[in-house]
Fold:
Amino acid sequence: MVSIKDVAKLASVSIATVSRYVADPASIREHNRERVEQAIASTGYAPNSLAQNFRRGRTGVIMVVIPNVGDPFFTDVMRGIARVAEEKHYSILIRETEMNTLSFDEYNDIVLSKRADGIVLLASICPVTPPRNRPEDRRSAPVILSCENVTEELAQLPSVRIDNVAAAEEATDYLIKLGHEKIAFISGIATSTLTADREKGYRNAMARANLELRPEWVQEGSLSLGGARRATRKLLNGVYLPSAIFCANDEMAMGTLHEIKVAGLRVPEDISVIGFDDVRYAEITDPPLTTIAQPAEEIGERTLQRLIRAIEGRDIGSTAEIVPHQLVVRRSTTSPAD
Amino acid sequence: MVSIKDVAKLASVSIATVSRYVADPASIREHNRERVEQAIASTGYAPNSLAQNFRRGRTGVIMVVIPNVGDPFFTDVMRGIARVAEEKHYSILIRETEMNTLSFDEYNDIVLSKRADGIVLLASICPVTPPRNRPEDRRSAPVILSCENVTEELAQLPSVRIDNVAAAEEATDYLIKLGHEKIAFISGIATSTLTADREKGYRNAMARANLELRPEWVQEGSLSLGGARRATRKLLNGVYLPSAIFCANDEMAMGTLHEIKVAGLRVPEDISVIGFDDVRYAEITDPPLTTIAQPAEEIGERTLQRLIRAIEGRDIGSTAEIVPHQLVVRRSTTSPAD
DNA sequence: CGATATTTTGTAAACGATTACAGTATCGTG
DNA sequence: CACGATACTGTAATCGTTTACAAAATATCG
Structure:
């Protein structure tokens, strides 16, 4: 491995001069610049970023904790994150978590052992041991939540997201406005606040409209295709058939659409379906999916911009930055038949 | 930041002892172990991985270059990669590339400046300057191709993948066996060898069956939903309507299915569609998609296992490790009407 | 018990960059 | 030309670990 020393020797200058050349070629005298340039060219020298990072005390890495790298919504958010990361010369380290949580121990380890300059959580952080209870908690790395809300147990963390409660209310209200009264909800996973917020919105809207909410109309779909399919089959085989199903994300809505058709029912004539996220597939499902659109890439971009500001030592507060959502009406919803 | 020195001082031992404790607690004497444990606990010490990596000359990072993080096939491969990475204590650095290629300059930079211990290419590497022509090319980091084949310009690189040519032949043969003669192909992007191989398989099969291959039956779909939709519209609006369309991946097949239905035609009665990859959505499209299944996660796992062997200094050769594919017949294909 | 083998520990030198500080060259000006 | 101001360069310390080597402590055995 060729190091700065080899270049210095070859160019007959000190290592400091080479270092300065790398940082800013204009800062050294013409005469030396030529020799250093030549030495670098002939040795093929490139600064060892391991040494640079060590010396500078920074990793240049942003860790992104994501519940499911396969979900098209999350990958859109990631694309926004990646765009800003590249622009600001950070790399993205992906950490997929089962169960949607990053254990606090792992969080702590990442921070203490300097494996990342900052963390974006698309998942929640598991509040086993809140930061404040640990010794030396001043050393915490910048963290920001994308999409997720915070659990009450944790200190308020900054976030960038839509208002999930309001958006879910809006989706439910739309079904109610169409005349639906028997509306089922397929939820995500228990540990996800995002899911909880959407369920809250659904319950709020049902309560406000004075609609009966049968317990068996809320089914867990684990935010996955398979989970939603199982949940849908339960709904279809139940005693009280809903006339509309609200799925907590589009991935699940795709599974729901399929199972309804497999059961020999039609969407939307027999059952209306509404999703959440407006992933790229929502436009091409059969029928195209009515859903709540979120500006996924923008959420990713804003999240990382804010995180980087924090990494640079500026104050970003701990507020939730709310971005707008929008109901997108396609053809998977209509008024109930009866 | 608390360092090994602080711990050593507090425990009244040398830093070497602390270091040894961290590497293997059993290697130090009971008496000292207790003191060190206590000192670590009370200071909240964690080894600085920046310093460790620097000292050890390794990053603990595998870079994964991926053309499109949103494609469900690639995310499945990534999941396999991630599983092995976690097991072997590597982190995954994602680098998404437009146009499917990593420029050689960037590759070189990653290697020379030690930003990753190894590279997995789900994309191709752009052969602007083949490694062999550069000075000091001995320093190349381990690279392995997943899915992709190699271009002839580049030295042979190790890879793990299916036999794309054979698989595409098999898909085309299946359509031919069903009685189709007017078979169109929606290809990926020009820079992708994966795409080229599948097109070759299609052409082979057509030639072997003595079927006419009209130039307008091969359309570029850029491996994306939108690209496939445009390509499909061209096929449907053309003078010679095909009776079957073979899409180079499932993502595109989903777009194709949609556009055929939008045009008022039925799948498979009017047009059969066959995809490639068997992503999780293939089962729930309408109708469910006939496709070629690849063991995506297994490909990812094997790729990384082999790469890690190379990183550890063992010889992995430069052969293509071929894993089996399989035709999965669902309901998007049938015999032509006429 | 003493000699030797074994285990455990400490000292100090790396790793490759950045940078404070001091020293040297260059320049401008009177 | 002398002088100070300015621009550039070199020396050496530093970041936090790991580890070769030597030294010290302990164990083993006749």
